[in-house]
Amino acid sequence: MSVRQLFLVGLSHKSAPIEVRERVALNGDDLKAALLQLRASEGVKEAFVVSTCNRVEVFVQAEAEQAARAFFTSRADQAGEHLYVKSGADAVRHLFRVAASLDSMVVGEQQILGQVKEAYGLASGVEAAGGYMSRLCNRAFATAKRVRTETGIGRGATSMSQVAVDLVEKIFGDLKGRAILLLGAGKMGALSAKALKVLGADRVLVTNRSPERGQQLADQVGGTFRPWGELDQLLVEADVVIVSTGAPGFVLTADMVRAATKRRRHRNLCLIDLAVPRNVDPACAELEDVFGYDVDDMQKVVSANHQARQGEAVSAEAIVEAEVIAFTRERESRAALPVLVTLRQRAEAIARAEAERTLQKAGDVLDDRARASVEAMALAIVNKLLHLPTVRLKAAAATGESALAGAAAELFGLDQAAPAGRRTTPRNGVTPPAATPPEKDQP
Amino acid sequence: MSIDLLRFAAGLYAVAAAGYLLYFARPRHTLAARFGGWFLSGGVVVHLAAIGLACKEFGGLEWFTLRGGMVLTAVLLAGTYLLVQRFYHLPSVGAFVTPLTLIILLPTLFGVGGAPGEAPAALKHPAITLHIMTASLGVALFGLAFGVAVMYLLQEREVKGKRFGALFSRLPPLDSLDKLTDRLVRLGFLSFTVASILGAVIARSVWKSAWSWDPQQVTTLLIWLLYGGMVQARHRGWHGRRYALLTVFGFALLIGSIGTLRSVPGLTMHAGEYKGPRVEAAK
Fold it and tell me: Looking at CA atoms only, how far is residue B145 from chain A in angstroms?
């Protein structure tokens, strides 16, 4: 049960190129088959696999990591040199960091937690993951949630098109009943127009100097093509204009935009210039009721957000560390529990048996109260004797020290069967009348 | 007695303002905004109770003074905001409106204002209660519009100046603020119009003339024209920054005129003296 049996073997965008990752990535039924195969491997008790486009990681509860390593080497020969292997608390920490999106390409992105949850669901569906992985994963999900709510790691847009969406949202709220104009056939423009669809724009208008390319683009983003000659009219119809043409100079001049704002009756107009060199005269942004942004403005937001996330990552790491320590301690003390339980059971059985023998010998000399006192005394001696060893064992287990538990097992002969003639009744076997704590009931 | 209740209400408003401001500073604490809402509701209830008690204590005379008007305006401002929040759910507006309520209420907490000793003849008119209520509601709505317009101007500065900082992420979208300002101005104008008509009717019956060049009447007409012009301008497509600036200007004019006219004794017949009819009554 201790984390020392946990192993992680994996590769990610940090350790392996895409050529290797794509060869070992699995999903759906292939992944299920692979999980079952892992589970059936020698010495593997439980297993689960996180497989996304950025990482493939195999977690196993086993004596060694061989089976997990074989998962990779059997699929791609060159995978071996890109693998990282972690065990125990390091493996726990890695999973927690992955789930909290601290190991992602874009730190703080939200998808990874869903992917880990899915991976666990799949593994527990085919019964490759059991109680151990369940506790591990649930702790990882809880950690990720803590990180998300207690730090600002997921805050702020980290791509240009997301920044465009944020900006437009702060101006218009949503785009219901409004139109987006896509001016030019640049790739970034199309991406942003697609991203803006989440705001619910009614219409996407597309215009381009070459009608063929424009029509093509209109089909691609689900908009309607309008000829370039209508540009002045289009500036009145649309509320958000995304400009990305290959033109070397300004496509929108201050005069054009000024004329448009008058005809728009000063409704707000948002101009997003994604072209380099710029296609929108910077003087446009100075006009009243016009909000203009260029690539630099957007890029500044992106890098500021990246930086902010890096800053937040520091406090996120602290949360992860605390959770890793808490989890391993919990596991370790659980691992020490079997020794403690057996020790106590054995001792109590001896106490009861001895008390019974004494009472039988005494016969009718003792009344009921005296008999109860004898039984209580026997149990009290056991409790007093075992109190300090119990505390010490628990403390040792919590720090990951297992030598003491082993020594206790050795010393008390707990790994052997109970001595013959002694009944190893659990507590509820022969219930002594003294239900109250024996210490208080001493004769 | 009523003053103690009023002070208690002010305490609740202060807690509400703290809650909303905390939410504004740390948007992660959505609970702070919810607490703010609860305390604000509690404050309004206590405030209304204080008003009811004051009616009993002073026989309703208190509401003819500037102080009474402020007490009414504050409760209407808070109440209207609670209503608005039901429909728009913009808790960040609370960070602007709750402190404004507190500021309006604060001067009224130090002693009961000088209520006129005897009921002026104008009091006898049946429409007077409605006149006072609609006028106060108008001021409250314009006050709310003022708060939202200030938010608009702040946000516009952020968005336009490419300062994507704390204010940017906390203030609502420009368009929502613009629309809300417009609705509040319209409602305020409606309420103000009703108050003015009622005022004219009352003046006709007590002062014998609907229009007597009383400074309060003149400024009220000017303010009515200003807001009426804004409603018209909106139809002609005025949006955004200019509209917000006008809203701020209008409210500043309104508060300034009420403050100065009423604090100079004898300047206006609305200053708790209602001299015309009282002189007649004395004769």
Answer: 19
